[in-house]
Amino acid sequence: MSLRLPSILARTPSPAAALLYVAITALATPVGAESPGSLDALQVGEMRRLVLATDPVPAPDTPYTGDDGQETTLAESNGRVRVVNFWATWCVPCRTEMPELEALARDSPGGVEVITIATGRNAPDGIARFRKEIGITALPNALDPKGTLARAMDVPGLPATIILAKDGSEVGRLLGGANWNSPEARALLAHLADAPEG
Fold first, then answer.
1. Contact predicate 105/138, CB 8 Å
2. How many domains is the chain partitioned into structurally?
3. Are residues 2 and 70 in the same domain?
4. Do 84 and 144 belong together in one domain?
5. Could you tell me the CATH number of the domain that includes residue 52?
6. CB contact set of 83 (below 8 Å; sequence gap of 6+)
7. CA 5/CA 17 separation, integer angstroms
8. Distant-in-sequence, close-in-space partners of 148: CB < 8 Å, separation ≥ 6
9. Per-residue pLDDT tens over the stretch 66-124
10. Same domain, yes or no, for 7 and 77?
11. Which of 14, 74, 75, 108 could form a disulfide linkage to 61, CB 3.0–4.6 angstroms apart?
12. Can you state the angle between helices 92-106 and 124-134, rounded to 10 degrees?
């Protein structure tokens, strides 16, 4: 990591000024504070495709239908890392990815929640058949029937998985299918769950 000195210090020949700048910068950044760069070492295997948010924004307050049939939003932080997966019954990569999300949900690292949201036109009987064929029991049956949440989160295609930090801001996103139950994915999620909030 290279450190750019402010122009005033760059012109100052004093090594003490540079040392002072480094010390102040180090003290201004809390130990363990999450930044996209701190996840670089954990981006291995399929997690290399995870695009980290350079300017994390909070999840929108756009409603979707939760597992209980009630409207809810992702905007309200629940203090957990959330793996939010957008999928559809017609999506072939979704069919491959869903068992891995199910396995992650069954035995997720502490502080991690998996939310799968069927987005767009998905007939209720088609969703039920999809879930039965794949053996989904641990994942929520959340719905975004008009795709309003997917649009609000700039989801360009399916499947798409967006990771939200404990404070509700986007950490990153992965487009296309992935093995979310892999050791690499689990290590990345556990790291986020163990990080201090904020």
1. yes
2. 2
3. no
4. yes
5. 3.40.30.10
6. 101, 104, 112, 113, 114, 115, 161, 163, 180, 189
7. 10
8. 62, 63, 64
9. 999 999 999 988 899 999 999 999 999 999 999 999 999 999 888 999 999 999 999 99
10. no
11. 75
12. 60
Residue 23 in this model has a pLDDT that exceeds 80:
no
Same domain, 25 and 65: no
For a pLDDT cut of 70, what percent of the chain falls above it? 81
Same domain, 64 and 13: no
Domain residue limits at 9: 1-30
Above 60 in pLDDT, residue 10?
no
Which pTM does this prediction carry? 0.80
Three-class SS of residue 66? coil
**Beta pairing, strands 81-87 & 112-119:** parallel
Residue 12 has pLDDT above 80, yes or no: no
Same domain, 103 and 136: yes
CA dist 94 and 80 (Å) reads 24
Hey, what amino acid is at 125? D
- Within 68-178, where are the H helices? 92-106, 124-134, 148-152
User: What residues does 35 pair with on adjacent strands?
Assistant: none
